[in-house]
Specification:
Blueprint (H helix, E strand, L loop, with lengths): L1 H17 L12 H30 L4 H26 L5 H17 L12 H14 L3 H4 L3
């Protein structure tokens, strides 16, 4: 089970790197917000969890050590929960509407002569992230306007 959890975290981290942070996607996909908050939490929450332990021990003393550690551990683990959610999301299959959108973008890229990975038969969100990232790099942003 631990191997599956670690693998899911790794997939979530990779997915956060592959997902294009484009403002047009905010209305459709929660990934931009989750990635932003997870990275922000990864940066600031470890220090906040240490400060929480110190503050609780200062106020309540040694008698509240275990509750203070539990709260600090929860705060420290919040970014892991974000990466876990992203890992689960990356391996989820696209719904039918997004599958059609995925196929349309892939076809447009092939017609434009852009080299990319061949489309998957049952694409996942991770496949969509790679396709969108490639499309944004190699096509003009006009292809976004026809869908938004």
């Amino acid at each position: 089970m631990a191997e599956g959890f670690i693998k899911t975290l790794q997939q979530g981290f990779a997915y956060s790197k592959d997902w294009p942070a484009v403002a047009e996607f905010n209305a459709i996909f929660p990934e931009n917000k989750v990635i932003k908050m997870t990275l922000l939490g990864q940066k600031f929450l470890p220090a906040f969890s240490v400060a929480t332990i110190m503050l609780q021990l200062q106020i309540y003393g040694q008698s509240q050590l275990f509750p203070a550690l539990a709260v600090a551990l929860f705060i420290f683990a919040l970014p892991l929960q974000g990466f876990y959610w992203l890992g689960i999301r990356a391996q989820s299959h696209l719904p039918p509407q997004l599958q059609r959108w995925y196929q349309d973008i892939s076809t447009k890229m092939q017609q434009s002569g852009v080299a990319h990975v061949m489309p998957a038969a049952k694409p996942r969100y991770a496949d969509l992230a790679v396709l969108l990232k490639t499309a944004l790099k190699q096509l003009d942003r006009a292809f976004l306007k026809q869908w938004f």
